[in-house]
């Protein structure tokens, strides 16, 4: 058995969700639901469209956060927004 982390599949619908899952320690993310939606929408072309949309959203999230490589994604890139609008980064909880 491998030492991998499990991520709930139902919540991973967009590229930024995959970014968050990787930042929380996931080793991989399944994308079956998006592919099935694309297949039902327009067959093979719909699957390509779905995958392109997921990739574009994931890439834009990486760019906005300032990450150049997938292996650099970590908890330091995630934060809660407090009621006053300030940010509390997840890696601060560990200190």
Automatic annotation (TrEMBL):
<dbReference type="InterPro" id="IPR000262">
    <property type="entry name" value="FMN-dep_DH"/>
</dbReference>
<feature type="domain" description="FMN-dependent dehydrogenase">
    <location>
        <begin position="15"/>
        <end position="78"/>
    </location>
</feature>
<dbReference type="Pfam" id="PF01070">
    <property type="entry name" value="FMN_dh"/>
</dbReference>
<dbReference type="InterPro" id="IPR013785">
    <property type="entry name" value="Aldolase_TIM"/>
</dbReference>
<protein>
    <recommendedName>
        <fullName>FMN-dependent dehydrogenase domain-containing protein</fullName>
    </recommendedName>
</protein>
<dbReference type="GO" id="GO:0016491">
    <property type="term" value="F:oxidoreductase activity"/>
</dbReference>
